[in-house]
C-alpha cells in the first residue's frame, strides 16, 4: 500500500533544489506582466565600436507607451513588492522571490505557453 507524504514548499525546495512551479501561478504573473509591461531593446555603440543591444523591460502607460524602463533586477524587486507578502503565492518569501525571478526571462522571450508551462530560457 502506497503512503502519501505531504511536504511544504520550502521542504520541496530543500529536497529537490527547485522552486515548485504551479502553472496557474505562472499564468497569473504572465498576465500581470503582459498587461503592465512591454519588451524592448536598448541599442548603443560599444567600446569596440560595434552596435550592441541590451534587452530591457518598460512599464506601459494606459495608452501603451513606455513610462519607465526596468532592468531584470528592478522588475524582480517590483514583483516582489507586489506578490511576496505571504498572501499571493508562497508563504516562504525566499521561494516567492526565486519563483518570480525565474519567470522574468521566459516571459521576456515568450516561452510561457497558454497552459503556464515554461519552455526554457537564455535571457540575461
Largest sheet: 3 strands, antiparallel
Category from helices, strands and their pairing: alpha+beta
The low-pLDDT segments are none
Categorize the overall geometry: elongated
Mean pLDDT: 83
Order of helices and strands: HHEEEHH
Give the count of helical stretches. 4
Indicate how many domains the architecture comprises: 1
* Rg over CA atoms: 17 Å
Strand content: 15-25%
Helix content: 40-55%
How many distinct beta strands?
Answer: 3
Strand order of the largest sheet: 1-2-3
- Distance between the amino and carboxyl termini: 47 Å
Word description of this protein:
It is a single chain. This protein has 124 residues and is an alpha+beta fold. It has one domain (22-109). The protein contains 4 helices and 3 strands. The protein has helices at residues 9-16, 23-36, 72-83, 93-109; strands at 37-45, 51-60, 66-70. Strands 1-2-3 form a 3-stranded antiparallel sheet. Strand 2 (51-60) and strand 3 (66-70) form a beta hairpin. Helix 3 (72-83) packs across helix 4 (93-109). It is elongated, with a radius of gyration of 17 Å. The mean pLDDT is 83.
Give the topology, please.
Elements: H1 9-16, H2 23-36, E1 37-45, E2 51-60, E3 66-70, H3 72-83, H4 93-109
Antiparallel strand pairs: 1-2, 2-3
